[in-house]
Amino acid sequence: MSTLELLDELGFEACAVVLGPEGVREQRGDLDLPRPWRSVTKTLTGLATAIALQEGRVDLDDPAGPEGSTLRHLLAHASGYFYESARTLQAPGLRRHYSNYGIDEAARHVERATGYDFGDWVLEKVADPLGMTHLDWGGSPSVGAVGPIAELGLFAAEVLRPTLLEPEWSRELTTAHFPKLVGIMPGFGKQTPNPFGLGFEIRGDKSPHWTGIRNSPSTVGHFGMRGTAFWVDPEADLALVIGSAHDFCDAHREVMPRLGDAVLAAHAR
């Protein structure tokens, strides 16, 4: 039995691909259907910004966002911005407030520093080198990407074995910034702490969570509210990418952790 047969328990159409460092280990469903990535888009924005950091175009300590905030605060959901507005809940660095607006503001900072439209920057620096030829950027650096799961798999493979970033910047991308901050994880409630990297969620010791119990604390990735998700577990040397035809719901919360554990049991090194 394929571990990915667990997708059938979602009760609606879904697809997935398991990746090791050598490539595809297992796949199921329609990987070529364009799907909205929603908040998974934030990881593309994080990687594209890390390339700007690597090129010296921006610095994580650049002032950006509300008073006292930096580019680092924006990318790590620590600026104090509301979810989708320029209003602030509190001063930067005090709590993890998940914010689409903050990610979009980080992209605007990169635009000003590089002179590029941010979508063009993502396509030139990330999508084109990785062969993501069907990615539709869609305008919003926090939620706008649309594309097939096969191409999200190319992105996950890059996170698993980086080629676009030097080790220093790859670590910055996927290491927790302001690691002790408490916050609400959308769909899963208060997490103490609630670690995030630069646009990437970090599993840490979060519970409940959408990844498996077997996933290491260093697992990184993201899920989107339109039913797309991926994780990369560096200790297991594996990635799992999922797409579905339903908004994120209780079925995802119940099946995805079991699917992650089954994949790790079958494929972890």
From TrEMBL:
Q: Which InterPro entries match?
A: Beta-lactam-related, Beta-lactam/transpept-like, Diverse_Enzym_Activities
The record's Gene3D superfamilies line, in alphabetical order, gives: DD-peptidase/beta-lactamase superfamily
Superkingdom classification of source:
Bacteria
Q: Where is the Beta-lactamase-related domain?
A: 36-244
What PANTHER family does UniProt report for this protein, alphabetically?
BETA-LACTAMASE-RELATED, CONSERVED PROTEIN
Q: What is this protein called?
A: CubicO group peptidase (Beta-lactamase class C family)
- What species is this protein from? Brachybacterium sacelli
Q: What is the lineage of its organism?
A: Bacteria, Bacillati, Actinomycetota, Actinomycetes, Micrococcales
